[in-house]
Amino acid sequence: MTEEWGAILVVDDDADMRELAYDMLKDRGHQVTMAGSGEDALKRLSQEDYAVVLTDLRMKGMQGLELLIQIKREHPDINVILMTAFGSVETAVEAMKHGASDYLTKPVKKDELIRVVERVIREAALRREVSRLRREVRKEYSFHQILGKSKAIQAVFDLIRRVADSPTNVLITGESGTGKELVAKAIHYNSDRKNAPFIPVNCAAIPEQLLESELFGHMRGAFTDAKMDKRGLFEEAQKGTLFLDEISELPLMLQAKILRAIQEKEIRRVGATKPISVDVRIIAATNLNLSEEVKSKRFREDLYYRLNVIELKLPPLRERREDIPLLVEAFLKKCGEARGKEVKGVSEAALAMLMDYAWPGNVRELENVIERAVTLSRGEKVSPDDLPAAVQGARGDRRVLDEAAERTLQLHELEKEYIKKVLEKTGGNKYQAAHALGIDRKTLYRKLAEIEGSHHSEE
Fold this sequence. Notes:
Elements lengths: L7 E4 L3 H13 L4 E4 L2 H10 L4 E5 L7 H11 L4 E6 L4 H9 L4 E4 L4 H32 L9 H13 L6 E4 L6 H10 L8 E5 L5 H9 E2 L11 E2 L1 H4 L4 E5 L6 H13 L1 E2 L8 E2 L3 E6 L3 H6 L5 H7 L2 E4 L10 H16 L5 E2 L1 H9 L5 H15 L4 E2 L6 H19 L3 H15 L4 H8 L3 H12 L7
Helix pairs in contact: 2-3, 13-15, 14-16, 16-17, 17-18, 18-19
């Protein structure tokens, strides 16, 4: 056995029984300590960390049941097993009511003692691991971890604080890559539902014929492949949050069933005759304008109003450029640690390119660009050469304006410079250049003729 199994405290006022249990457990390699009374046990528990207390029920002074109650009050994570020579159903029931993990009757058999103690230790270890993971998850998805100092993102933080503990449904809107699921998790893990499940569903990723079964579950025999009863995601999210991403992709038939689930707080599995009550908070997300989808009859108006009680609109990255350096620093650290590669920062030229780029893919695209840069970087800092061509090109376009302002060019001269730049980017393709400039080809030919001082005939 190793330390990860946890320490055991054996409590008994009978020295022979105490040492017998000690020897049995020690032979299995467990870390075991002894106490001769309940008072001595409580003192040890305040000084050392134990996974399990194995205590006699009948002792001089503090009785085992009293010790159990005291332990569960002061150290709720410690599991307690009671031993007694006066075993009875009533005594066992009373002990279990007060939080005992199990019950052994003297004379205790070694095999039974080992089996019960090691099972309880495993349960204690699992519970501690779950608690640790929940703490980590809450830390990771706390709204404090959604990075940004801009006014736009601070307004998002404020709204998360205000809606987190409300049972109200929330609709998160914003372009693809703005972090809608991250915000949904922040709402959940800062709410009073944080100890219950957070279940994300990408409505666009599940085939339409399977989506109803995934959301609502099914009964055995409901369709050809339904070989057993299956719980749906609404049931899995009981007392927690169901995050419906890309809600606009829901078929109209399922929209009606979602509406009923929200209104009646109950669902019905496919093939079932009886409804099942559910207590679930709905957070939905979309990158489309749902009101326009309603006008186009692609989304139910009544469901739209049920979901859109509170709308939380996420700003695109181009509208909060002051957050880019902060995000870059965080992604550099994350990607560097993941690859065991230390990259201390980005060069000024590379940062300028990152600041100038439009980021159509928003924060998700920025993270991917930094991941690529960390992978390709040969030095301590990310250089322009480590960035994709599209990001490098953004700085080139901006440089035209910077240089024009520096040279105080007149507007018609700036126009010439810009047309030349667009032609370079299109490889001389005048049709593509005219399209990019938002003019027809005749106008482009005329302007080129003015630039070059000669007339061009259309090709």
